[in-house]
Structure formats: C-alpha cells, structure tokens
Write a structure and sequence with these properties.
Blueprint: E1 5-9, H1 15-27, E2 32-36, H2 38-48, H3 57-65, E3 74-76, E4 95-101, H4 103-111, H5 117-127, E5 131-136, H6 143-154, E6 158-159, H7 175-190
Parallel strand pairs: 1-2, 1-4, 2-3, 4-5, 5-6
The chain binds flavin mononucleotide.
The site of flavin mononucleotide has 16 residues, from helix 2 and helix 4.
C-alpha cells in the first residue's frame, strides 16, 4: 500500500526550503503527496519566477525543483479540494510537513480552521497522532504567533523554525547550504536519511 508523506507548501517566504525538502524525500525514495496553497503560488512565482498550476503541476514541479521527476513517487492534490484523500484520517499518510509554514497556516492548523486541504490534512495527521512537522517563517513574531506554535507543539507537532545553523558550513556558507540545513533538520524530524548537511562531530573549526 502506498504510504506517502503529505508535503504542504503554504504562502510564507521560503519556497526554496520546500524545494530542498522535496528533493531530499525523492532522493530517499519516499512517496510524496503535494498540496500547494493559493498564497504559496504567489511566493513560488515571486521567489522562482515560475508558475505553479494545478493543471500542469508535474511540469511546474519539475521546473521548480530543477530536475526530472521520472522515478519519483509523487501525487498532487489541489488545495481547494476538501474531498481529496489527505482530508480523511483513513487515508494512509505517514505524516505531514508544512514547509514553509505561514503564520496564517499555523493559526489555522492550531485552531482547527481547515480553511483548505493543507490545513485540514495537517489537522487530520495531528489527530491520528502521526508525525507532523511545521517550519514557520516569520520575524519578528507576535504573542498570537507564539501561542499558535505552542498549541501545535502541545498537539504533537514538531515546530522547526526556518532558522539555519551556520556551523559546519564555515564563514562562507552559501544560501543553498543554509537552505539545506533547514530541509535536513526537517528530514531528521521525519526519520528520513539524507546528506544535506555535515553533522557536528565535536571538532571546532573542522
Ligand atoms: C511574497 C509574499 C511573501 C510572504 N511572506 C510571508 C512570510 O514570510 N511569512 C508569513 O507568515 N506570511 C507571509 N506572506 C503572507 C501569506 O502569504 C498570507 O498570510 C496568506 O494568507 C497565507 O495563506 P496560506 O497559509 O493559506 O498559504 C507572504 C505573502 C507574499 C505575497
């Protein structure tokens, strides 16, 4: 039986984090169901110059990730489709990552708003006690943002801010190394192996 990770891309800045995570999941041979919110289409357009359209999702995803998707086990559900598979707890998902997670998505998931498939699928995976990772991207934050993150933590989610570490990569860390650090930490939280960053070995400056 197919047992995919649901990857929800919401409309916060940071779509390169989503691209790095998706590449990592495909490289590890994992199955993925992708949900891209309406607002995320704006951030993808702004940050990559490319459109993401439901009708052409496979071509658009391939262009976004900069690679051929042949061999990748990937499905796509429109964000407005509240009858889609991942909206039910009986759908055999392994868990879910919301990357990047907008403050709006964090709020909606935390209070059970389910305003679209992304929010509904995250709530479903939380209630089924599956692994849920949210990667919020906003700064500075209000008390209400923090309250929603605490609610997500208390509901069982791993709250993994898009906050890259600079160790390992050295003073000349590239943007891609910092992006891969965050994506790698999200894969660690899912228990998916990867080589996106060099692990700390206890040797300063090496
Ligand atoms: C270019 C652009 C960048 C944005 N960056 C952020 C961001 O970094 N963090 C955030 O929480 N919202 C950001 N927003 C606002 C969200 O897109 C907006 O709150 C939206 O309602 C989120 O909807 P969603 O959670 O359904 O994707 C951004 C919007 C745009 C157009």
């Amino acid at each position: 039986m197919r047992n995919p990770w649901i990857v929800g891309v919401s409309g916060a800045s940071g779509t390169p984090y989503a691209a790095a995570l998706l590449r990592g999941l495909f490289d590890a041979g994992e199955s993925v169901d992708l949900v891209v919110s309406r607002a995320a289409r704006l951030t993808i357009l702004d940050e990559t110059g490319a459109a993401f359209r439901d009708a052409h999702w496979k071509d658009d995803l391939s262009r976004w990730l900069g690679r051929d998707l042949d061999g990748a086990d990937v499905a796509h559900w429109p964000a407005g489709d509240l009858a889609a598979g991942p909206s039910s707890g009986s759908y055999p998902a392994r868990g879910m990552v919301v990357v990047p997670a907008s403050t709006a998505a964090c709020a909606g998931i935390a209070i059970g708003l389910s305003k679209d498939l992304l929010q509904r699928a995250a709530e479903v995976n939380l209630k089924e006690r599956r692994r849920v990772v949210v990667v919020p991207r906003e700064t500075p934050v209000t008390r209400s943002h923090l309250t929603h993150l605490i609610a997500l933590h208390d509901a069982g989610a791993v709250v993994l801010p898009a906050s890259p570490g600079f160790y390992g990569a050295g003073a000349g860390a590239s943007a891609q190394q910092l992006i891969d650090f965050v994506a790698g930490k999200a894969l660690d939280a899912l228990g998916v192996s990867h080589t996106l960053f060099r692990r700390w070995r206890g040797e300063l400056g090496s």
